[in-house]
Amino acid sequence: MTGYTTEEPIYALATPFSPSALAVIRTSGTDAISLVQKVFKGRLTDRPNGTAVHGWIVDKNREKVDEVVALVFNHGHGYTGEEAVEIMCHGSLPVIKKISTTLEGAGFRLALKGEFTYRAFLGGRMDLTEAEAVEELVSAKGERGRKDALSRLSGSIKNEADKAKDEIINILASLEVQLDYGEDDIPEEWIFPIERVDAIINRLEKIRGTYASSRLYSQGAKVVLAGSTNAGKSSLFNALLKENRAIVSSVAGTTRDYIETECEMNGIPVRLFDTAGLRSSGDEIEKEGILRSKELMDEADLVVYVLAPGEVEPKEKMENAIYIHSKSDIAPGEGITFSSITGEGLDKVVDAITTFLSRDKRSVSDVPVIESERQERKLGETIDALKDAEKARDCSVDIIALYFQSALSALSELTGETTSDDILEVLFSSFCLGK
Amino acid sequence: MRDYEAIVIGGGHAGIEAALALSREGFDTLMITQSLDAIGRMSCNPAIGGLAKGNLVREIDALGGEMGHLIDASMIQYRILNRSRGPAVQAPRAQADKFSYSRLAKETCEKQEKLNLFMDTVVDFIIEEKDGVRRIVGVVTERGWKISAKVVVLTTGTFMEGRIFIGEYDAPSGRLGEGAALGLGKKLREYGFHVGRMKTGTPARVRKSSLDFDELEVQDGDEEMLPFSFDYEKIDRPSQNCWITFTNEETHKIIRENMHRSPLYGGKIIGKGPRYCPSIEDKVMRFPERERHQIFVEPEGVGTEEMYLNGLSSSLPEEVQHQFIRTLPGLRHCEIMRPAYAVEYDYLDPLDLLPSLESKVVSNLFVAGQTNGTSGYEEAAAQGIIAGINAAQRLKNEKPVVLGRTDAYIGVLIDDLVTKGTKEPYRMFTSRAEYRLSLRHDNADMRLTPIGYKAGLATKEKMERLEDKIEKIEAVKDLLKATKRDGKNCYQLLTQPENDIHTLSVPGLDEYSEQILSEVQLDVKYSGYLKRQDNEAERVKRQEAMIIPENFDYDKVDGISAESREKFKAIRPHSIGQAGRISGVRVSDIAILSVAIKGRNNG
């Protein structure tokens, strides 16, 4: 059973999981300060309560992850009343992800929804009747619980996940039977089913891969503006950024050929690329730039092909592209038209982009971002546990069973609970047992 | 008849432990049994221990119980099971001389100060109601005795309204030839206990001199017999053989042709039987593709010709049994001495119990053993000792002893029973224990003797033995840490799979016994994996520590879902931890509940 606890070190993102200037990651639990210290360059320990410490989050190789400000709360202070550190970091999604992973490495577990509030109650930091917080607990009800998480998995994915789970249960039952019955009852030695485990891993990797919104949300969709020179790409790039203010950074490309930025369109994080115009050129550098543009277009989730007035859509259309017409202020045209100068039609462009990105995916607004993040994480945990099992294949059966149990418990959080009775059920029905 | 402080109903494996625990803690105790000749009788297989069950026996001993001593004194073969499948999940099993076992059980009870034995059958309870609480204050027997006591432990085994079946034959019996305890089951239904029926079975016993041993395969035991009890280190007794044979197509054909004569398939038996210990009929029907099933031929003791056919339990008519048993190699000329039979009996829904094994229906009544829907001598004894300890705690006005799932297989067993209930006779399995890597049989004393000592049951000598063992273990660990090889100390080296404590040749280790060395070795080898478990175990322990008051009003907590509220009210969990393990309860409901309890405790 997973459930709320106290004291155990936990962390969670306190701000929305979307690109923004700053994000706050909260931790709480016994020794939270010294645990964060393990991955923090700067001194957090032995500080007066409430000290803000400037420093760096560093990974296990002591590589810098992000420049942050950490707020230190000693025991008895802070939101939960437990020892705590709140980390203010840059609000880029990869940074948030990397810090999360780093904190897990340091011994924190991702908090359950409402768990901080729960601890605040138990720590006596909040009045029991404090309506807002009670409501948070109660409203967490609808969303918590594995059954609910279950309903979030869409049909085909759930199907695949269930199949993978059944396979794991079968393997685990064949292991458990060795532990429940002696060698005189079950004389056969257990042989590691490497091919079956590989197949489960592949199946789960596939789910993770096709689970588009998770990738969309965690990494951002790659949208590339393309078109011939002077089609109006750069104007559109700037206009889109102005319209979509959640700009995190605007990084010049490592070469002079393209510019990349992060922004958010209708709630979807987007990595927007402005590329060099496509034309034949004798200039070596420009040639190289065009080559890179083409590479970018191939990798893109979406190519937004900008056509200047008078240009027509190519006969051979790219599958991952939409075609739009610029400069509608001087030359009104058909299809999606816009003007970067007047701003006319920009909303249609944004809609067209997000519609394309969420095509054959579930409606974006139905999917709470943090949940899909959690689901992807659970899939990842399952896969890791199975890989650990493969690594431990020469160990004794009791140890190998440990890894399959971890895999099953992670996957169960996606597909619904599995109890030891479920395993015994499979065990009794598949093996003729009992003297 | 005079009054007692405690009454134990039943003299089986649960009753023995309960009665000894109560009297050893100094309480004036009466054991009432239907037959003084049947104390500690092994109704079914002549063996104690096995996977998970062996751990239970050693846990019982660690707490100050008797089962370990009884089997140590009567074992005629000893084996450690699953040596190859991981040291943490292996367990001892011993073949017993049934007759020595039960004779010693009776003798131990008779010799015990403060324990009286009396032969009669309990047919009713004396219940008093005060302030809306019903409390047991005594029992009524078949011969009309009314005996009062402050606490009562009920351990009826398969005897309460027991009925045995052999084909078309059936009779009110708890064991073949022993009358059932009639009347109490009906009374308990009237008092509002949830009473159900369960079924179990036992195979035929055949005469040793009628077997063709040249057709049987020998199964011998380990060379060395080791005790279940932690109180001594050696057992010196010659080992007896068991034998193996197999069923064949002809056996299965006879069984299939006569299936309609089985009371199990004919619908005469309504009680649910155990899936893990199916009758031969069940095995043949459920696994038709299997060409043969393995059967063990085990001696029932040293001074007897009776041999137990392990794996051939059946409720088919006797003439069918004769036919199919004689198709097995080695048994072709065998003489059946006792037939196989099925037995159906009343059990009480364990969901009506607190984790102390006290009944929620009537206070001061504790229930243990097969009466709670379990099967197995070890499971019965494990509950018996806890029921006895907690009945004594009640007499002392002290808090009940509740073992956690992280502490002991006994904790898993009782928690499963009182939290999830059971639909078939419940047997302990390794796979039921989440923290099995730390619940090894060899460290049961480290886990439980301090608890048994604190409760007043485990003796001072036992506690001192444990302290001495802990000292030695620490000393061996220090020696390992102090000895360096290639820049690493031997403690670190031992964590690597290829290294063994015996081949590292650490000076000074020769002084220590094999048991100490192997225990240290397991501690060290598993330390990495145990760490994984420890975090989870810590979390569970914290939730276990949040006790829900007995009279807690679930209706007064806002925000709990209706479904969970009903479950909480029915099961009345003892702690937040237990509440969380009730099937189908939402995490958020647990959170709300713990907030409400915390609020209440603060207020």
Please, could you describe this protein's structure?
The complex is a heterodimer of chains A (435) and B (603). With 435 residues, chain A is α/β, with parallel strands linked by helices. Chain A has helices spanning 32-37, 93-105, 115-122, 131-143, 146-152, 155-180, 194-210, 212-219, 233-243, 284-299, 346-357, 369-391, 397-415, 420-430, and strands spanning 10-13, 20-28, 40-41, 52-58, 64-73, 84-91, 109-110, 221-227, 250-252, 259-265, 268-274, 302-307, 321-325, 336-337. In chain A, the strands form two sheets. Chain A has a seven-stranded mixed β-sheet with strand order 3-4-5-6-2-1-7. In chain A, strands 9-10-11-8-12-13-14 form a seven-stranded mixed β-sheet, with helices on both faces. In chain A, strand 4 and strand 5 form a beta hairpin. The radius of gyration of chain A is 26 Å and the shape is globular. Chain B has 18 helices and 25 strands. Chain B is globular. Chain B has 603 residues and is an alpha+beta fold. Chain B is 35% helix and 19% strand. The interface between A and B is large, with 52 and 66 residues.
What labels describe this entry?
heterodimer; A: 435 residues; alpha/beta; 14 strands; globular; B: 603 residues; alpha+beta; 25 strands
The number of E-state strands of chain B comes to 25
Pick out the low-confidence regions of chain B: none
How large a portion of the residues of chain B is in β-strands, by DSSP E? 15-25%
Strand order of the largest sheet of chain B: 17-18-19-20-16-21
How can the largest sheet of chain A be summarized? 7 strands, mixed
The ordered string of helix (H) and strand (E) elements of chain A is EEHEEEEHEHHHHHHEHEEEHEEEHHHH
- Spans of chain A of at least 5 consecutive residues whose pLDDT stays below 50 are 131-136, 138-152, 245-256, 360-371
State the helical fraction of chain B. Answer: 25-40%
- Within the largest sheet of chain A, what's the order of strands? 3-4-5-6-2-1-7
- Mean pLDDT across all residues of chain A, rounded? 77
Largest sheet of chain B: 6 strands, antiparallel
CA-atom Rg of chain B in angstroms: 25 Å
Beta percentage of chain A is 15-25%
Distance between the termini of chain B: 49 Å
N- and C-termini, Cα separation of chain A: 33 Å
Described by the principal axes of the CA atoms, the overall outline of chain A is globular
Sheet/helix structural class of chain A: alpha/beta
As a whole number of angstroms, the C-alpha radius of gyration of chain A is: 26 Å
Number of strands of chain A: 14
Helix residue percentage of chain A: 40-55%
Largest interface: A-B, 52 and 66 residues
